[in-house]
Known about the structure:
This protein has helices at about 10-15, 55-65, 95-105, 115-125; strands at about 25-30, 30-35, 40-45, 50-55, 70, 80-85. It is of the alpha+beta class. Strand 3 and strand 4 form a beta hairpin. The longest helix has 15 residues, at about 95-105.
Amino acid sequence: MPMPKPVEESKAFFASVIPVDPRIMIKPMFGNLASFINGNMFAGLYGIHIFVRLPENERLRLLEEEGAAEFSPMQGRPMKEYVVFPEKWREEPDKIKEWIQQSIKWVEKMPEKVSAKKKKAKTTTKD
């Protein structure tokens, strides 16, 4: 099954709900876009859908009470900690922004994720 591609309108909407912060990096992921802080992904765009990373209790709350869905870029294999916002929330961008802020607060406490290239560069410069 091919990965869904975002249309320009979805890219613009995604950009509008991600806060402007020099620590945040937006880059390609799954043929779409994702936002990272300290190397850890906290939100992304998948076709027309926005997903976010949350602690388990908050993720379950969205799934059970708000009509969110598990984020499964590969069918039948949901990504742990991630949830897709309900499509109707596109009409409520402030709600999305609030949840993205919650995600940032949680993810920024995680240890910095260093790419394999950077790890290798560090080990070779120590020699």
